[in-house]
Amino acid sequence: MRSFYGGTYIGKEVLARNHIYHPVRLEYYKIETEENVGTFYGIEVVKTEYKTDEPEVETGKVEHVTMEETEIDDMLEKFKAGTVMPNVLEEMVEEQIQTQKELCC
Fold it and tell me: How would you class 93 by CB atoms within 10 Å of its CB: exposed for 0-12, middle for 13-18, buried for 19 or more?
């Protein structure tokens, strides 16, 4: 199951610095997968660029990140605040998992 977590538009000043002159929207989704051992959570990020009449959509998804819903919610909040894009989602999830391991052990 996929549920909408939140969305944002990238600011015009950030886009202009990167020579992008059209709106870009990011949407963040929590993915829930029920399995015999319990529920696994993951993240999906959808980027929509409104260059022409036909929007361009790019999607990134990482499933089975954790079994802790609060952990995935924390990641989603950080990723939304940091405007994480689909093309770097997997790398960012790995960094978050590594950081959590270092903090706990």
Answer: buried
Does an H or E element contain 18, and which? none
**What residue segments make up the domains of the chain, in order of their start?**
2-104
Residues 28 and 101: their CA atoms lie apart, in Å, by 24
Alpha-carbon distance of 3 to 53, in angstroms, equals: 27
Provide, rounded to the nearest whole percent, the portion of the chain with pLDDT above 90.
Answer: 76
Say whether 54 sits in a helix, a strand or coil.
coil
Across residues 66-78, what is the average pLDDT?
A: 96
Residues 46-58 pLDDT 10s: 999 998 889 999 9
